[in-house]
Amino acid sequence: MKNIQKIEFHCGTKEELFSSITDSFPYMSSCAELDKFPNRCVPWHWHKEVEVFIVESGSLIYYTSDGEYIFPKGSGGFINSNALHMTKVIDNKNATIQFLHLFDSSVISDKKGGKIETEYVNPLINFKQIKIIPLYPDNDNHKDLLNLISKSFDIHESDFAYELKLRNSLSEIWYHLFEISKPIRNIQIDNNSDKMRLMMIYIHEHYHEKIKTINIASSAFVSERVCFRVFKECIHMSPLEYLNSYRLQRACAMLMNTSKPVTMIGYECGLGTSSHFSDLFKKEFGCTPLQYRYKWQKYNF
Hints:
- It is built from 10 helices and 10 strands.
- By secondary structure, the chain is α+β, with helices and mostly antiparallel strands.
- The protein has 2 domains: 2-186, Regulatory protein AraC (Jelly Rolls, Sandwich); 192-300, Orthogonal Bundle (Arc Repressor Mutant, subunit A), CATH 1.10.10.
- The strands form 2 sheets. It has a 6-stranded mixed β-sheet. The protein has a 4-stranded antiparallel β-sheet with strand order 3-8-5-6, with no helix packed on it.
- The longest helix is centred in the middle third of the chain and has 20 residues, at 162-181.
- It is globular and about 55 Å long.
- The two termini are 24 Å apart.
- GO terms for molecular function: DNA-binding transcription factor activity; sequence-specific DNA binding.
- This is AraC family transcriptional regulator.
């Protein structure tokens, strides 16, 4: 299991990059030490791999276009392929640790176009209305599945026939997820997530430039009115609020990982003068950019 303390992205997008996933067996498990992530959160992102997780300690909140979901210790869930989501620590007393399986659906399906893929895998991963399936131990329908997820992390690479054992375990988990999701798959599908990804990609590629709402809307071939609606429905922010949030995320990364002056970082992130940058930064994080840099350099040291 790989310990992770930050998120990496494919260049120019908010699609998460998993460098340890290989084509021969597209799977990885990770232990996310969320308190060690910048600002104790994982920003808005997506990944084509599905995600199955359990909260080992602490508590956290997942944000999706469907709303907010709180996960205390012992709870878990499923994040669908390409679903937009963000994670944030909400426990200030205990370390928040999350165990995750991340895998391509081919790990549990048979040959491409085969019966398992077409009848049991694709109906779930292609149903865009299902972004997240939360699982809680006080729900009798979830107890067995949470127990399976917890035990699946006891499978180690050193075990005999590791890949077979893991595939069998993930398949059993998938069976329960497929059963639980059956009633949900009767809901009407929308394509807001596709529009949202196009607009987010535009912002991530042009955040350092002067951007207006019309530019963001045009990237998804929609009107400004539709642009506002999609942002509000998907991530509960306006387009410009998300733009400023992303600019501040980029500024945080540069403060942590470079020695560039604050003034230069402000301009490179599209946040303007150092005074304007500092005002926005302090309002968002409760400290100045220099104080933030000192805090994280001291922490890493």
